[in-house]
Amino acid sequence: MERIKVFAINTSPRKGRNTEQLLDEVLAGCLSMNTDGGVHVSTKLMGVCDAAAENFKMCRGCWACAKTGQCVCGDDFIKDVYDEIETADIVIFGVPVYFYSVSAQCKAIMDRALAYMPVGDGKITVSAITCGSAGVVSTLQAMQSFYSCHNFIDAGWVATYGKTSDKEKGKAVAYDLGRKAVRLASVVKSAVNGAEERGDDAMLKDLKHGNHFAYGTHTFPQKIRYEF
User: Fold this and answer.
1) Which residues form the NADPH-dependent FMN reductase-like domain (predicted)?
2) Domain spanning 2-207, CATH architecture
């Protein structure tokens, strides 16, 4: 039985509100695959609302990580987030729209990825976005650019306007998106396992392909990992 680990990060500073409610629906969809998906799914949810201010450090833009492979911010909440991402098969970002883009907390997590890249490594990702009025498209663009840069496989997105608790259709879409993400993760893992068994190096190389500029690609000193 395929084991699928799901990690969700709520980047809203408001605990238990719209973004977390939408994430709960996506996670419920993921867990439903334990019954009829032929896989074993485990989930974990973390929220920036639970991080103490002194344990949530902003990127300094110093580029020390590019030279040493280590972030000068040391061990903190964002480091814990990337530790969870490293071992997950599916990563779900819960993102509220703040002034037509991601929350400051979400952007801080994205900025700090420089020290750990590539963080996607063929993992499946999902966006769960909440919005009061407008800004979903520009927020989604920011998330999808992040996914592309870090070699995630984007399974899709769901967005709700206003109170998530009132959006039955939105919750149903979120639930189905969770199921889709698990199915896609299972397909990718099966493909990788099959290629390894056959010794199909060409397929493994294709599955591990990373997006980058064809020139001037920055090289990081830490080992580049391709684990699915």
Assistant:
1) 4-152
2) 3-Layer(aba) Sandwich (3.40)
Please provide the DSSP assignment of 50-77 as one string: GS-GGG-PPP----HHHHHSS-TT-SSH
What residue spans define the domains of the chain? Answer: 2-207
Distant-in-sequence, close-in-space partners of 107: CB < 8 Å, separation ≥ 6:
101
DSSP state of 133: S
What tokens appear for 35 in the block?
């019954």
Tokens of 201: 């190096």
Q: Is 151 left (phi over 0), alpha (psi -120 to 50) or beta?
A: left
Lookup result for tokens 């639970």 = 50
How many CB atoms lie under 10 A from the CB of residue 174? 27
* CA dihedral over 12, 17, 23, 24, signed as positive or negative: positive
CA distance 41 to 2: 8
Token code pair at residue 220:
């990081």
Q: How far apart (Å, rounded) are the C-alpha atoms in residues 149 and 156?
A: 16
